[in-house]
Amino acid sequence: MNELLERLEAMGRPGGLLALGVAFLAAAAGAGLFWLTLDPALGVEEAQRIAEGGSGMSTRWRTRGLRFSALLTFAMALPSAFLGVRLLTQRHYPRADEVFPPMDVGAIADALSQRTEDLCVCTRCRVMVPAAFSTGACPVCASAVEYHEVQSDEDAQMVLAAMS
After folding, report:
1. 54, 110, 130, 139: most buried, per Cβ within 10 A?
2. For the whole model, what pTM was predicted?
3. Using CA atoms, how far apart are residues 130 and 111, in angstroms rounded to an integer?
4. What are the pLDDT digits (tens) for 103-112?
């Protein structure tokens, strides 16, 4: 179940629409099952069985079974509807690779040569972040080993050598 929730959350708003669609279908199926129990022919059929000397138990159990099935489908529709509304209304937070796109080696070399502040560079995914915002690990791949803080020209040369 968690995989389904994660997949719907990864879809964002389209996942919310899908969850609302499932909720609508489940609610419609539940309403249809409940409507079947309201059929007046069931009451007439039960009355005929009793008049013939039998019991109306089979009709009662069929009615109860349909109502229980309707209740289960309504119970399935409710959390799906809540999930759909939550996914439709929640704010989309961008992934780290959307905020810090990968750069080519030439662009990193130019930025390192013209730096005015300390920078942190990940040699694995080629991401550059100002050191003031760094947490000690790459925001994209979470690597601390291949994430280097560049404070001097020697550090810059080491990072460029590691990337080539």
Report:
1. 139
2. 0.51
3. 11
4. 998 999 998 8
